[in-house]
Specification:
single chain, 279 residues, eight-stranded parallel beta barrel, globular
Length: 279
Amino acid sequence: MILRARQFQFTFPRPAMLMGIVNVTPDSFSDGGQFLEPNEAVDRALKLEEEGAEIIDIGGESTRPNAPLVSESEEIRRILPVLEGLAGRLKVAISVDTQKPGVARAALAAGACIINDIAANRTAREMWEVVAEARAGYVAMHMQGNPQTMQINPTYANVVQEVGAFFADRLARLVETGISLDQIILDVGIGFGKKLEHNLALLSGLDDFARFQRPLLLGASRKSFIGTLLGAGPEARLPAAMACACAAVQAGVQIVRTHDVAATGQAMRMMEAILKYRQ
């Protein structure tokens, strides 16, 4: 299985990849405001690369539940200086976490090679056309509703089956729009339109999505379902998030998105070493 994202190519099977998070926002649930200044965000990205991240995911709009909407121009204003500051310095792939085609276009022009799209449940084609034209990688994430509505009583008859059906539909739509299968990454969308039991069911059923023969991304880092289960605040959720990362590796997930690259990477490498000896 191959993943192509502009100048980057990754061939699987291989050790699971780490996607390090850099939120250039004042209001993200965990690290909002910490890296709002471009120089701080650039330094953070370089630090995450040093810790082992193979993808740096830069976001200019919070996607936590009920987060206020950010205009396209403001989102571009936040991320563009960071992308420009990383030009020629960062050797790993840059992803931009956005649901706006205009932001994606500007980010790709500034050197990004992956678009991480929480709104892959859309029906409009513009974002997909931008990705197809740039031959960029594309993360298609499952979400029920949008950040303003997604946690208003989300319901599923069988969340694993329904997310699987969504993936099948999206793959067909994306290919029809001109995106090659080898550009696509799938994300079950932990915390996006899911209650605690839905998140746990998806974590326990990750191996079901191997049938799509596309890299699977898991983002559970510091998310609120951990707090719901364990009563821990965002800064105290690392051990539980590492457990989710290890479960993901065991299930064959290829990319883990995290705020805590060094610690999560160590846990993943240990899990991979153990799995080599499984009979």
